[in-house]
Design brief:
Blueprint lengths: L2 E5 L4 H12 L3 E6 L3 H11 L3 E3 L7 H11 L6 E4 L14 H24 L4 E8 L10 H21 L4 E8 L12 H10 L8 H13 L8 E4 L5
Parallel strand pairs: 1-2, 1-4, 2-3, 4-5, 5-6, 6-7
Helix pairs in contact: 1-7, 4-5
Length: 233
């Protein structure tokens, strides 16, 4: 049975993804950070173990993989959909804020790739990014930079890990009905809707189905941006 690890499984998109992956018959572990009660409820509902993880901690990924190894739950597939989306303006961005965002997004992805390679795991590493930094949209500079870094990392890892049986792709998520998109102003949200080819925003369930395909069915797509944006561009 395919073993999937979802980083950020207690978030709005992560929860939809957890449900979708379990419905497909795969075994799932997931991480959370703040909401222990929600994580416990999701674990019970989907029979999926949860692990508290602070992605700002450089040792957190190694600790998680060691715990998974001890329980026989090392993943064939990792989906990194954990993240934060600040609304800070340029003058208020601190060095600490910059470092934390890059730790949560890019550094964690890199460390997961290292663990898969070192433990000879084969399968897929799926990084999840917002439009910011990948498309030319309004965004806080440090957040956009962290999302752009995920794309560069995807291209490099796909080349290095592809021959070792690990497909690495970047899923670019558009404006959805939940999660970080709820932080958008009504004006900006309406602008995204108008520019989407479908003329509407998406749902977390729709994004989760696309991610499920990358996780469980893809055997050839590697090193690309996989757009789950409704034709926004």
């Amino acid at each position: 049975m395919t073993q999937v690890l979802i980083l950020g499984g207690s978030g709005t998109l992560g929860t939809a993804l957890l449900k979708e992956i379990r419905k497909a018959g795969a075994s799932v572990s997931f991480t959370y950070f703040r909401n222990a009660d929600r994580a416990t409820a999701l674990s019970r509902e989907h029979a999926s173990p949860s692990y508290r993880m602070d992605l700002r901690d450089a040792d957190a990924v190694a600790g998680l993989f060691e715990a998974l190894a001890q329980k026989g739950q090392l993943p064939n597939v990792i989906i990194h959909c954990a993240g934060v989306a600040p609304t800070t303006v340029l003058d208020d961005i601190t060095a600490t804020a910059w470092d934390e965002l890059h730790a949560i997004h890019g550094r964690t992805a890199l460390l997961c790739a290292q663990q898969m390679a070192r433990r000879n795991l084969r399968g897929a590493l799926i990084l999840v990014a917002a439009l910011d930094g990948v498309y030319p949209v309004p965004a806080p500079a440090h957040y956009a930079a962290s999302q752009a870094a995920m794309w560069g990392l995807t291209q490099a890892l796909a080349k290095e890990l592809g021959p070792r049986g690990i497909l690495v792709n970047l899923a670019v998520i558009g404006v959805l009905d939940g999660g970080i998109a709820q932080e958008l102003t009504p004006t900006l949200r309406e602008a995204y809707r108008r520019h989407a080819a479908l003329g509407r925003t998406g749902t977390c369930a729709e994004a989760a189905r696309g991610l499920r395909w990358l996780a469980l069915e893809n055997t050839y797509v590697n090193g690309v941006q996989f757009p789950l944006t409704g034709g926004l561009g």
